[in-house]
Amino acid sequence: MRVLLVEGDVTAAQGLTAILQNAGFLVDHTDMGVEALEMLRHYDYDLTLVDLDLPDMDGSELVRRMRIARHPVPAMVLSGSTQAAARIRALVAGADDVVAKPFDSAELVARVHAIMRRSKGYSAPIVQVGPLELNLDSRSVTVDSRPVHLTGKEYSILELLVLRKGVVLTKDAFLNHLYGGMDEPEMKIIDVFVCKLRKKLQIAGAGNLIGTIWGRGYMLRDDAPTMPALRATTLSANRLVAA
Asked: Keywords of this protein's UniProt record, alphabetized (predicted)?
């Protein structure tokens, strides 16, 4: 998941970036509202985290301009003001949530997860596709209640596919999701990640959920037949040979 952090205080921005990155988010930072609007035009974000006090404009004004420009990305505002009027103004402008400073980092991350889930149409943290269950909060994956151990990149690819099930995702979309335009490797690395992810899911018994759309990219589907875990299948075959 990718977050745009709009925070004018350098120290606060560094702390927030560390909190979000430790929770598994990819974070882009700017200290200016005008630059944030430009970044929203060119990049796909899952959440905008906006401080109320920015150098060039009020955070509520940034949210208002986002909504006028019809940016669909959810917005969370961080407010150091003790006045209810400031928080109400942010909500009226179109903010999805307002968090007062100082805040508990665990609560902030939980609120971010909740807003992202709602924006994708999910009220609960667990998303199910066939026998596969993905927990958006704990970033864990199970197949038929058995854990599937994925690398960070493999999980991020699966998360994007699950949240956009039925949509063809290009390799550019995956690169943007994984690296955010910074130090991107060659595009063929996506094929490598998807191949390894497919193998792990098949071994776990999830079948071939990830379809290849030739010349376009990949898509998650839940109509593929499931299969028993390959370990069990291989064991049965070995027993037949031995017999």
From this structure: DNA-binding, Phosphoprotein, Transcription, Transcription regulation, Two-component regulatory system
Quote the pLDDT of residue 222: 67
pLDDT in tens, 140-191: 999 998 999 999 899 989 988 998 888 899 998 888 878 766 666 788 899 9
DSSP 8-state code for residue 181: T
> What distance in Å separates the CA atoms of residue 16 and residue 130, rounded to the nearest whole number?
36
Q: How far apart are CA 215 and CA 224, in angstroms?
A: 21
CB atoms within 10 A of CB 228: 12
- Please give the single-letter amino acid code of residue 74: P
> How many angstroms from the chain centroid is the CA of residue 91?
23
pLDDT confidence bin for 232, thresholds 50/70/90: very low
CA dihedral 189, 195, 199, 201 (to 10 degrees): 80
Q: In this structure, are residues 109 and 20 in contact, taking their beta carbons and an 8 Å threshold? A: yes
Phi first, then psi: give them for residue 236, nearest 5 degrees: -65, -40
Asked whether the beta carbons of 148 and 204 are under 8 A apart, the reply is: yes
Beta bridge partners of 47: 3
Q: Please answer whether residues 184 and 175 qualify as being in contact, where contact means their C-beta atoms are separated by less than 8 angstroms.
A: yes
